Amino acid sequence: MSEELMELSPENSSVSGFKEESSEHSPSEKWLKTSKITPFIQLDIQAEFIEQTNSGHLGYGHSHHTPETGEKHQALKSHAITNTEKTYTVTRRKEKLSSVLLPLSAASYYSGVSPEMEIVESCQTIEKLNAYLKAKKDDVNAGVPGKFLRAVMGSDGVDVGTVASIITYSFYLDVTSESDQFCTVPIININRANLASHVELKWLLDSCHIDQSSLIFADEIDLGYYDLFGSLNIVLLKGSKINSKQEKLKHAVVENFHCRKGDTIYPWVKTVITGEECSCCTAIADKFVNYSPEILAGKSFSKLLLAGILLDTANLRDPSCTSKDKYTASLLINGAGRYGCNGFYQLLKYKMHDLSSLQVADILWKDFKKWTGQESGDSRSLQIGMSCVGLSIGQLLSRAENLAQEITSFQLYEKLRALIVVTGYFTDEKNFKREVLICTESTKLLESLLFFFDFNASRLPLKALHFPGLKNEMKAYEIDKVTSRKIVEHLIQEFVGIPKP
């Protein structure tokens, strides 16, 4: 699903590509020759051909040639003016965006196309990307016979910038590879079932027409199997250390892409590419520019990379945002749609905070972390999780018939002995407020946690709240001053015995 409406005019409803032939073919030309454009659905608008006449006039539509003019037409074709065709599909908009604070633009006043409809331009790069993803997943399902599995993955997190980087960089490695000994696949570091909780990511993949059934998620592949037989190579993006859950696979890391200067690199890693740019997507787009800039011309592909850049750089306003980030964003502006970069960024931020379609478990998974430690006087390991949500505890209670049971099920699934839900929201008076809901497996552990928080009351002053339906192992509190959620995070780490960095 794409959020923008494209205006139909002679300039954009009829598209032609002009390219001169030469005896030598660049990677760009070779790549384009293998591309095919097919309609997404039956309802489409075929772009007409633009032909150049002897007088230099641009004519739209298909000309009917007489035998005399036919000779001239053939002569024109011999001058290497090749025609390309783009396909547009018209679909009914699936959602209304009236609640999104979009910036004013000329498109806001365009009345030639109904706002209930949207027009989507075909993207041959996405078609090739989807074909690549499907082929590689088929290889993985077959066990990757006779090849090394080259897994491209993020060091941590599944934010939009990380996922966009993983998908596009694995595609880049594949199209530029001169060897067939690697099966290069992107690995998304969450379970497939948890994708729904990342609304902005799911929306972006949908609107870019990424075939999500061909993506590989963490619960769909056993990387340890390939590591056991020595056929696993890991390309690590946006960091120098592998995710703590996959620590046992660290010796398979062969490349660090877009890590920071000064990061501690595994000593056996030979290929290390440090990132000067704020966004990893900027560095990947630069790779495509040098290899085949036509790949970035597709609207959906440029949209995927642009989304990562805008969110990584806070709409190009982050102090660490570089001139290269800004320049690359301007190259990818086609992906922003009718409202430009500002409007596209607002849509992404809106989706990040949109909880309207999520169940309680999805809300808890949306921004979730957990730590493992040891409780004093207990031989068992202690796993505590923290979920940050943009709702009040009261609103969370209203979303489930039995919130206590939903939270208990979540704790069991994640093997947590305690879960701390940290809320952050604005009241009707526009005052920011935080609350915490502490949920434990036993009253003994609850008392231990509350004693620890009370001891640190200067950092986390709590005021009791009372809600019906909570179990004895659950307590709700209002944080009695404006507090960063990082304070709660640091206190949890201290409680489980994780030393300060």
TrEMBL record:
Disordered: annotated span: 1-30
Domain of life: Eukaryota
Domain DHHA2: 350-480
Biased composition (Basic and acidic residues): 18-30
One Gene Ontology MF term: exopolyphosphatase activity
Pfam families given in the database record: DHHA2 (PF02833)
A GO CC annotation given for this chain: cytoplasm
PANTHER family: BNIP - RELATED, DHHA2 DOMAIN-CONTAINING PROTEIN
Descriptive protein name: DHHA2 domain-containing protein
